[in-house]
Amino acid sequence: MSTLPEPKVTIIVVNWNKRADVINLLDSLQGIAYKNYSIVVVDNASTDDSVPAIKAHPLSVTLLENAENLGGTGGFNTGMRYALNVLQQDYLWLLDNDAEVTPYTLTELVRAMEADGTIGAAGSCIMSPEDKSLMVEAGGFVHWRSGTWAPNLRYARLNDQDDSRIIDVDYVAACSALVRATTAREVGVMDDRYFLHWDDIEFCLRMKRQGLRVVAVVASKVYHGVEKGCNPGIIYYDFRNGLLTASKHTSGIGRLIAYLGVLNNAFSSMVYVNLLGHRAWSRLIRSSVEDFLLGRFGKGRLSAGLTVAESQPVAEQELATRLSRVLVYASGTFDEVVQTVTKVREVAPGAHITLGVNRERAPIFDFLNVSHLCFDILKDPLSSKIRTAIKVLCGGYGVTITAGEGLSAPYAFLLTKHYTYAPVKERFFASDQNLWAIWKVALSLVLGPISAVAALPSVWNAGTRHAGSGGLSGAAEPVRDSAVG
Asked: Which of 168, 199, 398, 409 is deepest in the core (most CB within 10 A)?
């Protein structure tokens, strides 16, 4: 590549109220080895001082200011439409504003795509910023049967991988994705109806439908965390947009299976949180399905301040007597889990700790030197869930503790004593989610599938209406653009 002219790349970054992150990204872009590029930053009506900070940055940037927050989907579409209509380029590099690039992140993506004209999009290997030898994902695959997706090589060790690998996948995340400009013109930009979540997946699935490859490039590395905790927005968009994606990319028995996968997860979760007394969370999940049925897309109707009700605090001295053998559920963020395990060790230094953790997430906690009980609530078949329940019941645990203030895992109901730990408050709280309330889990597992089957005809009819191109060609709201730097 060094002896030939470098193809022109337009870098597109979307920002909303993340001044420090977007400035850090621009700083890291100053150090890339690739030189034939221009930068378009789309600001989604930030209310912090992101815009003046971007304008003051020494890099030459075209700044587009949306009149409202259009989400990641609308933001990237604003940038792509501007680039395709106004600029000349060979590639579009979609980049998250809180990512950190290396000098050769872009070089390796371009190298892979220049070597094979059938590649429509190439994504970087996303690495953990906390442990830079740990892979977050290298693209991923859609699992229609479970109504969700699975990141590829999630939490694998980089030194176990061949750095030259180029891996065919179903999708690559817009965290760092290089898209051929001709491909974007051929398949269209992202579907504006998504707002965020599933949008980059659906974008890539359209490329594959056109016979193009979507690949992850292990040699191209970008640092970006994924630990977001219990986020109501993610839950809402997961279910609503999962149904929309299934409508657009499945048919026949495949669509039936995909719908049931999403609906079973949605309704089981809705019944579960409702029985726990979290009515707002239950309404949120219900609205995700309702909005799909009614064709209400774009920015969701999310209520602010969705939290889990606080219980009675527990004195550490009282708790210490029960902590000889404890099961900690890793339901919170990375920091919340680490702080919870640290606190348990402080309160009961001799305690044997087992971490109940999502299977693909377990490797990031290896450094804690605790036992792992791994599971996947959404993807495990019933037989695996039963085996996990037996392990909890027969593990000799005195108590279970949920890390963080999010929703507890259903397995928390299997013991008579259950607590939560809130690192921000540095307090343990008693929980009524214990063995005496296990009927709530059982009922949700029964009513969830029944509700999914009952809703299937309505969802099928709605999906038939929504399966078209939808928001692919609609223009974004007018933007103000300015060349800065």
From this structure: 199
